[in-house]
Amino acid sequence: IYSVIVNFGTEKALIEYEEKDVSIDQIHKRIEKLGYSIIKEGKEIEHLHNDLYKYKKLFFTSLILTLPVFIISILDIFLKLNLFLIILIFILATVVQFYVGRVFYRSAFFALKSKTANMDTLIALGTSAAYFYSLIALFLPEIFGNNLYFDTSSVIITLIILGRYLESIAKGKTSSAIKKLIGLQPKTAVTIKDRKETIVN
User: Which of 2, 94, 116, 160 is the most buried (most CB within 10 A)?
Assistant: First the structure.
């Protein structure tokens, strides 16, 4: 491989390589080993729809679970929470952290395997710090006190998933606008040679 130019915004990679030494399958396998997936030509719209559905599902799941965690945590400022409410926010925050947040852990894992870090590494580290600190404080209050930050990790994950969801909506609208523009292209052209008109594709 001579050169690789990657544009994360357009999700495209331009790869210059020697065909006799490297096969396209080897390149695909290497990209997948880094944690990315290959979108085959003509499947871009399907991929955008899948992305939109995935982030919509994750966002609304996260929102439904995070709202009670956030409200109960606000109540904690004014009232002393009973054990039932504390266990409830722990369970809800755990689902947000490891079910919704798995997209960040997966990306961070592949980045770590490649001996690098990305934005998802930061999100995974930050939310994990808040979650595991709260977990230890919940079961060992004599060491860490009784300050819980389950709401912090859940709210961060929810807001970032909302960002991804909005980004998917924007990408979907852009791709559909581009598709319409391509549809407006004329299919034929008229050429004039020696005063004679010819229709060509």
Answer: 160
